[in-house]
Write a structure and sequence with these properties.
- The structure holds 2 protein chains of 2 kinds.
- Chain A is of the alpha/beta class.
- Chain A has a single domain, classed as TIM Barrel.
- In chain A, about 25% of the residues lie in helices and about 20% in strands.
- Chain A is built from 5 helices and 8 strands.
- The termini of chain A are far apart.
- Chain B is an alpha+beta fold.
- Chain B is globular, with a radius of gyration of 23 Å.
- The chains are: A alpha/beta, B alpha+beta.
- At the A-B interface, helix 2, helix 3 and helix 5 of A face helix 1, helix 2, helix 6 and helix 8 of B.
Chain lengths: ~170, ~575
Amino acid sequence: MIIKYKTIAADDWTVLRPEENDTPHDVVVPCGKVIVPLKVWQAQRDVLQARTELGVWLASDERAEDLKNDLEKFSVIAVDFPKFADGRGYTIAGHLRTRLGYTGELRAIGDVLRDQMFYMQRVGFDAFATRSDKDIGAALKGLNDFSVTYQASSDESMPLFRRIQRGGES
Amino acid sequence: MYRYDNFDHQITGQRIAQFGDQVRRRLSGELTEEEFRILRLHNGLYLQVHAYMLRVAVPYGLLSAAQMRMLATISRRYDRDYGHFSTRQNVQFNWIKLEDAPAILADLASVEMHANQTSGNCIRNITCDEFAGVAHDEILDPRPYAEILRQWSTFHPEFAYLPRKFKIAITGAGEDRAATAVHDIGLSAVKNARGEVGFRVLVGGGLGRTPILGTEICDFVPWQHVITYIESIVRVYNEYGRRDNLYKARIKILVKAIGIDEFRRRVEADWQYTRNGPCTVTTAELNRVAAFFTAPDYEQLPEHNAAMAAQISESRAFSNWVQRNVKPHKVPGYAAVVLSLKKTGIAPGDATAVQMDAAADLAERFSYAELRVTHMQNLVLADVKQSDLFDLWNAARELGMATPNIGLLTDIICCPGGDFCSLANARSIPLAKAIAARFDSLDFQHDIGEIELNMSGCMNACGHHHVGNIGILGVDKDGAEWYQISIGGAQGNHSSLGKVIGRSFTFAQTPEVVGRLLEVYVRERFADERFIDTVRRIGHIPFRDYVYAAPVKDDDALAGVEYRLISAGASHDAPLYAAGI
């Protein structure tokens, strides 16, 4: 199960995480709906692009720009959080949405926890493969921590000061 | 000062609800300490040697009297009747229970305060010139920009998990009183030839293990672009800053590694996407925020108050205080007053609940009900009539806040050190007290003149030792505490990093070492030369040679002092209930 579009949903995608000895050229990509690492996509694109359903994931030290000409080839793009404290994925997601104009499913994978999901949602993630040892129902609540925000981000093109007339006393 | 509107209140309230739930889940075991740690840090809560420490934000150092009273109330209700003012113009409470933290945040919110992002690897409280708005050398009041940047940085979704902490300082005056050169980003207001306002931007300054002064990345960013330009700097840092080594993760290491030119190229490349975009600050927003920082209703007064001149000539004590603790004001007949939190015998920057309440009273009586916290760990009443100075001085004396030592030897900047901090290698507060006690004589201090002595209990440098004219750094040698001495550091327009004079000393030797440094200064100085200028003129070698010429004996008052740092440091894996301690 994952969280997608603010509800808990079944999921039949498999994330391919190569073993240490696998090389991007040689690793076997199983049949079916698979989210492959960027490097595997780059190494095997001639074969993989024939697939009707394919996903790709970016590691936190990889660049969204590397997918700039391929966005329409994927049903899902995922960004990996090796540790929840590694914040590079937020900028990657922001680039995919606001600079590259990606509008398809953007999924957070890896160390994905409730208490980071509000920010993840703001920068453009709309699907969350939460850590399997955590209660996914509780995690869903993390998307509603705030109803007001100061900044512009992928979810909101205007900062608060351009969205509304400020200054009202509560 | 800035007042919350209903949006600010909502955001703050929702944050407290979020953190309250996180605390509940931690106490129930739903969250592990590892998962919870970063969440509590984002809310200013550290686990220290004895208990939790809560660091409350004082945005750009500005407090109302009501806010100061709430700090006093919190110290009584949840702590031990005192608070500690820090070098980031914040307030720290040292004896907090985890389960009380949400209630404290709610109390703070009731007076429009918070502890958001006062720690953790995110954008921290933005610091400012303590004389903003009243300084005689001001180009513009930086506080509206500081507030605009406070809101921009608060819960910024992209920058909550940076490689390391991120500190911004901003000044609007000719003289840099905000230490902009030792911040991740330092902003100084400038006006260009056409009279337009903008900021000179320094990047990559910082202290810690690798002290570096900031480098200019842009000589003029027009004020409208201050958010987007800073956002690009932080974004490039988030993408490229090192995450493999805690000690090489600050932006200064990235700037140094790729060079300022390449760093600037990346920032400008990123900025092209957002420059002139929706995050460009509007005149309407600047005006809205700036309207909160308008000048109070000053009286028309003569430039100099005749009664005060008489009081100065009658009382040497008052005269000393005026000389050291009273600062010029841009409006005739007014002055800015520094209330010293550096009385000998007291931990530098500490204030009791009684003092906090009384300082609030003084602010109401003499200074339009506002106070400032300085990065030198003192308080400021910024708008005092010269004719009130004598009464204010008398009132402050009774409170122990009129020590006439601002800018002198005992106005020591000092971190909490080994007595409280789990990162420290050595104690700093007791050593600061010992040094203050040894050189307590006011005549001696006035003879030595302006000097900055800064002390840190470890190389994280919270006590800014690198930029002290005399810097003292606590180091650990086989579990014992030792102190490394440097000279020649300075902050401000002529910032410099100190140079270590040689091998380190014991706790009990260090006051004598300071004494020897001062002896060299007194021997070598020209008439009105400050300590730092003598060091710059003659270099550190005469100081080093004299300090090490003869064995350094222990300070008489410190005989039998325990050298071994007793505290083990907190490493609790379970929620710490501070009950009973």
